[in-house]
Amino acid sequence: MKNFQMSVALHTGKLVRVFLIAILLATGACGSSPPVQEMSDARQAISVAREAGAAQHAPVDLRAAEDSLNDALRNLTRKEYGLARDNAVEAKNKALAALVIAEESGDADPQR
Description:
Helices cover 82% and strands 0% of the residues. It is built from five helices and no strands. Helix 2 (36-51) packs antiparallel against helix 4. It is mainly alpha-helical. The chain is elongated, with a radius of gyration of 23 Å.
């Protein structure tokens, strides 16, 4: 009985290690390809924020979004895709913050 419990414990430990290795490989793969969708999302968010008047009402936030997108582009050319992805997501979030400020100003074109 004791040998059986020990065998099960060893087998379970191996399964846990295999599972952890699989998770690490899967998350590592996320950074191995260019962040095409994230870059597109960031560009679109910046464009929408600009159209909503963020350049006038939230220039600091809009500029921060553009700077983050430029960082993403630099990291993309260096093939540092994980960093580029992080920068692109940050750019999108900053652009969305600028958009909210612009829309709250009430001066955005209501027909858009």
